[in-house]
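User:
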Amino acid sequence: MYNAKGLVQRDRDLSREIESHLPLVRKIAGQLKARLPANVEMDDLIQTGMIGLLDALERYEESADAQFETYAGQRIKGAMLDYLREADWLPRSLRKQMREIETAIHRLTGRLGRPPTEAEVAHGMGITLEEYQGMLASGAGHQLVYYEDFQGEDDGDHFLERFCGPEVDDPLQALIQSGFRSAVVESIERLPERERVVMGLYYEQELNLKEIGAVLGVSESRVSQIHTQCIARMRTTLRAMQWSDLGEGRRH
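Assistant: Predicted structure:
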């Protein structure tokens, strides 16, 4: 129940409000699921989101600046992201597979002086185009930054290692202050045009994968493959950037 200002009233029927906000939970779960591998269940996201909704209903104050749906959306999404972090939903084997793709993209970009095509990446990895696209499909949910990137891994240097050393108390704030956002923007600008379009439609226009597919005239699964490759290219670009220079700017 809302008052005249669109804020939740305290003398409310909790079960009715939970039911009325279930579409919001489903919407947020659907947006996240589009970026996750197939082994993540939609029902698990919804159940976790319901915990976030309950938390929002308990904590929200009518005097708050934000309206309830905005506040609840943040709590719901936060609960889902916490669940995903704890569940480690992208297996290390798939992360290793994606690093192999990133390595091939980096090598070919240096050799060709431009972003390689999918066929060129596949050839460089010694596999067929179909096999490469299958790897992209299985890597759905590949992220730009992993928690492990702040700690380093056993088998290679990560683009955050040279910047976020053990002396950094808050790596996220360190990245923000260093100009990480502008670096991400630059990595997007270096993408091939079609991939820039996909990123713009997904993150700026907030279209889902099916809607983007309709715009581009391709299937939803194909858009997922393109999105995964975008992330791999961007990680490759960020790794190649001079993070030490950014770090110098942060220390002064």
